[in-house]
């Protein structure tokens, strides 16, 4: 099945109902992970921080299927998952999550996989992940 992205984005081959753990998740070309020193998504006239917080702000900016732009704040592990999706385009969701568990030294890797599976499903629901790599 060919999933057409809205607007000017290229079409991407993905199975929207594919198994996100056993299959290879496909990141939307309309999703951009961004990191800032300041919480730029919260800055307004009444909130003008003078000093950056201790941790950077990680955001996912994406366009959904209705062509609306959304912002999603990412924690460090979610940002790592997005980076792995970009850097390891042939790895299954399970492989990505197991690599994250190993890299952060988590004492319960199975828990990272379980929680990560929920995150992958949420990202698919939002349109950040289009599904899994289509294998005809």
**What is the topology, as strand order, of the major beta sheet?**
1-2-7-3
Number of helices: 3
Largest sheet: 4 strands, antiparallel
> What sequence of helices (H) and strands (E) makes up the elements?
EEEEEEHHHE
CATH topology-level fold name: Outer Surface Protein A, domain 3
Number of domains: 1
Strand fraction band?
A: 15-25%
Q: In CATH's first tier, which class applies?
A: Alpha Beta
Distance between the termini: 9 Å
| Helix content estimate | 25-40%
- Mean pLDDT rating: 87
The dominant shape is: flat
CATH level-two architecture: Alpha-Beta Complex
Which structural class best describes the helix and strand composition? alpha+beta
Q: How many DSSP E strands?
A: 7
Low-confidence stretches: 1-6
Q: Rg to the nearest angstrom?
A: 16 Å
